[in-house]
């Protein structure tokens, strides 16, 4: 389900305010960076004075507390050896583990009240910022650097770039969301679904976490396994990450139901029998919605970033992705040429229909 950014107010330095921006779509691939942050009934700078009445007195679960920063060692979603995916099994050091898999309900994150918050370590501030970002995404609001500094970073202002970078990487790798600076002047940020996808798996009637991170992980596994992957192969990757079939996960719920039901129903995956298998086995391939919204190159770039390398390091997949890019470019050129020809023919027909004067 795509989220549309609402219009919270981003307070700039020297009392300047950002102007109005409406309907900023999280799933959009491109956006107008020249558009200043929105100004509306929401004021992000007043978060410290607000409370979350619906969850007052409830313990707010720090969902990112044990999520380690992603990197080649901790988020090895694909094999370092591009010809053998199974050689390396990913580990998130608890980031996507089943530490919360006992079915405990996850309370929605409240707007943080930092009035009496004790001095936090940098790691704690990264955790806090991740929760703040999840809250802003759930509320469809834009963030400002001013408020992040005031609410979270505080006396560690000189380490803001580091804190933001680490939180951004965590949002990207765990939840499949990009943090984009949409107003370079006033330093306002919005969250966008990665890779051009338009799905985050969140429900409008209840609090939940974005599921795009798991979707991108599955798409990457399928692509790196030769564009098809059996269910067994997928669980071989997911189980060491603490993601098990039939066991409730604190971010993804029931992962098997999410993969086999929702991802398939949303047409991001196709679940089909393996040719000539006896007994019958089933495999996953990319669905039509995946092929329409993203590309092999985008997925490969994500995989390469996880490994801290370049896409060309995965030579066979890189060549395959290049061929797809060239085919898409050629199709686009032919479509434009066809449209121009039809337009010209239509104009000529209209001109010949008038009698000579």
From TrEMBL:
<dbReference type="Pfam" id="PF01454">
    <property type="entry name" value="MAGE"/>
</dbReference>
<dbReference type="GO" id="GO:0000122">
    <property type="term" value="P:negative regulation of transcription by RNA polymerase II"/>
</dbReference>
<feature type="region of interest" description="Disordered">
    <location>
        <begin position="85"/>
        <end position="118"/>
    </location>
</feature>
<feature type="domain" description="MAGE">
    <location>
        <begin position="122"/>
        <end position="321"/>
    </location>
</feature>
<dbReference type="InterPro" id="IPR041898">
    <property type="entry name" value="MAGE_WH1"/>
</dbReference>
<keyword id="KW-0825">Tumor antigen</keyword>
<protein>
    <submittedName>
        <fullName>Melanoma-associated antigen B16</fullName>
    </submittedName>
</protein>
<dbReference type="InterPro" id="IPR037445">
    <property type="entry name" value="MAGE"/>
</dbReference>
<dbReference type="InterPro" id="IPR041899">
    <property type="entry name" value="MAGE_WH2"/>
</dbReference>
<feature type="compositionally biased region" description="Polar residues">
    <location>
        <begin position="85"/>
        <end position="105"/>
    </location>
</feature>
<dbReference type="InterPro" id="IPR002190">
    <property type="entry name" value="MHD_dom"/>
</dbReference>
<dbReference type="GO" id="GO:0005634">
    <property type="term" value="C:nucleus"/>
</dbReference>
